[in-house]
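re: that chain from earlier
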Amino acid sequence: MMAKLKRVRAVPVEAPEGEDELLEIFRCGEGSIYVFDLSPAWASRLLANRHPNQRKISKTHASIIGRAAVNGEFMWLGEAIHIDRDGRLINGQHRCLGVAQADVTIKNQILVMALSDNALLHLDATRKTRSLTDLQAMSGDRRTPTSVNAGILFEASGFTTQSVRTMSRPERIQMIRAYPYTAELSALHARSIAAGVKYTRGVLAVAAAALRLDYDQAMLFFGAIADNNAPSVPGGQAELFLRWYLRSRVSLGLATSRARLDALEVAYKATAAWNAWREGRTLKKLQSGRKGTPPAPR
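^ sequence. v structure.
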């Protein structure tokens, strides 16, 4: 039976000057629970006593949290910050860094002091991260394949993975929701898998851009490749090059949803084929783009 909630004493971690002590509201044999306002001073205090075996901090993730807090978009869900029996921070370091860097306070935060000797090893043991498709379903949206979501975000961010990584998950959901041809991209993706060419993020991003530029021509070009056995589209030498390239990636085991490092390379080649086909040019090979210059479907 759960012990009755009661205010009993302050946590034995010294508060920063001018800050309120952490207020204990619950205690059991395994530890205690506290409530406090996570101010920049408290965040810095906790960060100064991080567990030495903590995972590496992602400054990008911390900045997302800080930006959300500044904009009033940080949602209270009761997710706890954890310290071990020695007061060392074992969970919540990104929240603390985001608060410290953004100079903002997040009110009514929960802090748990876990007394287990192996508390750090058991963090997230019962948690399964929700994917974007999970969040779409929870929001009442239609589930979209992971590769299609990645392609939409890749195109919308100007073919840069860095800008996507700095988006919060709600921001990503809104960007996917705003794209007008999600159903068409999903259909092309499904057809390409059935035909053995498998559109991954790079191709889908170029297709997403092409659909904005010329819907009918984009469906003709990328649809012919996705069908694989369809008659070559007019001026289809570029389409054949791209089809052969994508089939070779499948045969080599490179066309997976996790093959992120070469997404830009694939986007360059898909763009080269699309632009050549649109302009009636003959291709000798699918060339990569210049480093630092994003693909530019026309």
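The radius of gyration is 25 Å.
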